[in-house]
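Q: Got a minute? One more chain.
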Amino acid sequence: MSEQGWQNFLAAEGVDDWVVLHGGATAVFRVQSLGEAARLAEAVAKVPGLEGSGVLLTMADASLTVRLSRDLWQLAPRHVELARAVSGIAQAHGAAADRAAVQEVQLAIAAKRDAIDLGFWRAVLGYGPMADDNAIDPLGHGSTVWMQELDEAKPLRHAMHVDVSVAREHITARLQAALAAGGRIVRKTDAPLSWTLADRAGNRVCVCAWPDGSTQEPSAGPA
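A: Always. Here it is, folded:
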């Protein structure tokens, strides 16, 4: 697993339907009913190589969401081909991709190295491991929990924050909506790749277009 996998995915042709989030490549296809979503899901499930790959399909009344992996670092060349195949089937079913609907919410829990307690969070949430620094919902419904290791020299200011990953062309709209709802910008070092916002009580959230909007990771400063 390396950065090369997701960078190659972003650079590939024929994957415009897909947004690369913290959890990997995801697409939302719009349909007219739950029945249509089910029929599309059945067709997608028949794509060679998809079964057993860790893909996650989520049906709703007006959409089918396809997540090719549960972790960004798992993206590999085969996912490009899978993405193209899924998009082709969706197009044949008349299901248009909606990049504006694609998002992922992640909970980041910050701690110094000797205080990281990932085992506790996996146990209390009933989550499983995907990588050495995270915990994921085995059903794919809940937000991923990521343990953010803090530099020993830095004070622990906020033990938790929320990360919201969206498509690169929609981050400005999400930022503006949050500001209009009363939020304020508290960190913009990595803008326009990401912004850290706070509510009136000071609770923080990072709105990110990474990795979808960049081939470089934003700085590792705490939120």
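A: Residues 20 and 210 are 8 Å apart (CA to CA).
Q: Perfect, thanks.
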